[in-house]
Write a structure and sequence with these properties.
The chain is α+β, with helices and mostly antiparallel strands. Helix content is 61%, strand content 22%. The chain folds into two domains: 58 residues; 103 residues, Ribosomal protein S6/Translation elongation factor EF1B (Alpha-Beta Plaits, 2-Layer Sandwich), CATH 3.30.70. The radius of gyration is 45 Å and the shape is rod-shaped.
């Protein structure tokens, strides 16, 4: 009877050990499954975030391409303006050419140039500026016509000061004008101005 009890005990212990082993394997499987589930969910969330960012980039692609085209066109316009401005800058002061053009414009408009003075030269980083001052006398319409000729001159220049006062002889007026003549010495493409205007 002892052997039967013992055999029953061994059987019970064997079943209990199998059940405990099965329980441990089941718990390990559940833990691994739970861990893999968390890992997959984290990766899915990360992948979903990356997919959303990529979709945002794709959605903004047309807007970015449109902006790039606009900026490229704007850059080309700026380059054309710079090239046009460069063509208006001689490689030296060419004061005699300017004075000749002033004299011709004054003659055409009936304005008498009574004084012309060459003042200082300012040396700037990108160009030089020769300051000239002139005084003219004539009728108001002569002064306006002369200034229109000056405005149409192909050379780059700025009017720094202009004053018109009643002259000593009516109906004449006296005009005082200070002009900055721009030029770029030692420029590599300086032949553009000289070939066109020199």
């Amino acid at each position: 009877m002892l052997s039967k009890d013992r055999s029953k005990s061994v059987n019970t212990i064997s079943w209990l050990l199998h059940a405990a082993g099965l329980f441990i394997v089941l718990m390990i499987s559940l833990a691994v499954s739970f861990g893999l589930n968390i890992f997959v969910n984290c990766n899915n969330t990360e992948l979903a975030d990356r997919a959303a960012k990529m979709q945002t980039l794709l959605d903004s692609k047309d807007r970015l391409q449109s902006e790039q085209a606009r900026l490229t066109a704007s850059l080309e316009q700026i380059r054309q303006r710079v090239a046009s401005s460069q063509k208006r800058l001689p490689d030296d002061a060419q004061e005699e050419v300017f004075l000749s053009a002033l004299t011709q414009a004054a003659d055409q408009e009936g304005l008498e140039i009574v004084d012309y003075q060459r003042l200082d030269v300012a040396v700037l980083e990108t160009h030089h500026q020769l300051k000239v001052q002139l005084t003219g006398e004539g009728q108001y319409r002569s002064i306006c016509g002369f200034l229109d000729h000056l405005r149409m001159h192909p050379r780059a220049m700025f009017v720094e000061m202009l004053s018109v006062d009643a002259g000593a002889n009516e109906p004449d007026y006296r005009m005082n004008l200070t002009v900055l003549l721009l030029y770029t010495p030692n420029r590599t493409d300086s032949n553009d101005w000289n070939e066109t205007h020199g």
